[in-house]
Amino acid sequence: MGFATAISGLNAASANLQVIGNNIANTNTIGFKESRAEFVDIYNNTASTSPGSGVRVSEVAQQFNQGNIEATQNSLDLAISGNGFFAMTDKTDATIPTTFSRNGAFQLDADGFMTDDTGRFLLGGLPLGDEVSDGFSTGAPEVLRIDVSQGAQSATSKIDLKINLDSRGTQYDAATTFPGFTQTTPSVPTSPYDIPPDPNEYNNSTSSTIFDSLGNTHRLSIYYRDITDTSLNPIVNQWESYAYIDGKALTYTGPNTPAELSNDSIGSILPLQFNGQGVLEPELTGTTTTTVPGNTDPKFVFKNIDVNPLVVGADALSFTLDPTGSTHSASAFGVSDLQQDGFASGNLTGIDIDKKGIVLARFSNGSSSPLGQVILGRFTNNQGLAKIGDTSWQETNSSGSVVLGVGGGINFGDIQSSALENSNTDIATQLVKLIVAQQTYQANSKTISTENEIIQNILNI
Q1: What's the pTM?
Q2: How many CB atoms lie under 10 A from the CB of residue 227?
Q3: What is the β-pairing status of strands 334-340 and 348-353?
Q4: Within 10 Å of residue 254's Cβ, how many Cβ atoms?
Q5: Over 60: is that where the pLDDT of 184 sits?
Q6: According to the model, what pLDDT value does residue 193 have?
Q7: Band of residue 431 on the pLDDT scale cut at 50, 70, 90
Q8: Cα–Cα distances in Å, from 413 out to 59, 62, 138, 194?
Q9: Do residues 23 and 430 touch, judged by C-beta distance below 8 A?
Q10: Counting CB atoms within 10 angstroms of each CB, which of 77, 88, 133, 310 has the fewest?
Q11: Contact, 209 vs 219, CB < 8 A?
């Protein structure tokens, strides 16, 4: 009977309308993937004259093509550009993902965990050290947590100094003592940085703020004197320098001897020597008492500088002063690089997440700290995933086992922060499909009414 065939068509058209309606309803759902109804014909027998028995829905298949990525103002909003899903779990102590999502509208709960709007937790790899280069434990996922506590201070351990010393300046007699500071009682100055040396006794100077173990600031000043002896043949371009911390001379007698802050000493000479092209000569710079034995680099290593007389409770400072790249030429004195790696304590000012999913906390002291790396999951057959609502899926036998990885990894897309992936539903296309589905439904209805008219005509004969 044609009624059964038409009814199957009505059912199929109705299912198609529901699928299209669901797509349209989720046009603005973050991370939504549209579906399409797929149909197969029905035959009750294989005879070549069989007219067929109608149609049925074989599958409602989701389409995992990329949705448009829209920028937001929230750094915790994440979008995946390419393959992969966010790995989610329902418990804070879980290490295995239970659901997967493309909805990256994350937020922090009361305990600092990254969650979606349903309360599920985002999995990631925790940092293996204090630096990004130390890596993350992505092979052992844990729930990502944002530590909003104060950024810890760090004492200065390295100072990079790159300067040009003017070869046209005044030459001083190497035998003349550099008087340095004139220190009066009390021996510890009540106000640092307020006792400068006589500018007629040096060519140039540099100054940098450094930090102790408590995050207190100290001023490191270095004064440079050109002691090149022009009577020599060939001329050897030699400079000497003197280091001071908070206006107190730094005496240094060897790499294995504790340095001291002296009340009135000129401190140890830090020698700098340049070749005829004005290039710093490592093998002749910072020799004898100012380098680690066997080290030919032009670095001055200071150890155990006791700052307690200036700041009670701070550990002794230990740092390396590296002038590599400094030059000696007929141009004005200049500082091209003067950096140190210490900082005071600071408050959290923001969260940055890069395309690999590395989460960094930024602090008001200019430092940053890695908090973790977002973990993604991918499958051999995305269409085999089970749809569980809330823009989420679960693994099935048809999808294949999940493969975990990170943004930018093999067959994984990049992660974009301050952005969300919109629904991949094209509203114009869906409206056209809606019209076609409606016509199909009406045509099947017409089949039923036509079949009914034929039967009525036969019965009225």
Answers
A1: 0.68
A2: 21
A3: unpaired
A4: 15
A5: no
A6: 44
A7: very high
A8: 27, 19, 16, 57
A9: yes
A10: 133
A11: yes
Which residue in 294, 218, 226 sits closest to 255, CA to CA?
Answer: 294
Residue/partner pairs of 202-207 with CB below 8 Å, 24 or more apart: 202/172, 202/178, 202/242, 203/165, 203/166, 203/169, 203/170, 203/172, 203/239, 203/333, 204/163, 204/165, 204/166, 204/169, 204/333, 206/161, 206/163, 206/335, 206/338
- CA nearest neighbour of 137 among 95, 99, 108, 100: 95
Q: Residue for token digits 């669901």?
A: 22
Between CA 387 and CA 22 the distance in angstroms is 13
What are 367-401's pLDDT values in tens digits? 788 999 999 999 999 999 999 999 999 999 999 99
pLDDT at 326 over 80: yes
Mean pLDDT of 18-26: 94
Residues 6+ apart with CB under 8 A from 191: none
Cβ neighbours of 105 (radius 10 Å): 18
Which residue, 242, 182, 180, 234, is CA-closest to 206? 242
Tokens of 6: 């038409």
pLDDT tens across 341-356, in order?
888 887 888 889 999 9
Q: Which residues contact 290 (CB under 8 A, 6 or more apart)?
A: 252, 255, 268, 270, 271, 300, 301
Burial 437-460 (b: 16+ CB within 10 A, else e): beebbeebeebbeeeeeeeeeeee
| Amino acid at site 232 | L
Residue 273 has pLDDT above 70, yes or no: yes
Among 57-71, 221-235, 267-281, top mean pLDDT goes to 57-71
Cα–Cα dist 123/212, whole Å:
37
Q: Write the pLDDT tens digit of every residue in 62-90.
A: 999 999 999 999 999 999 999 999 999 99
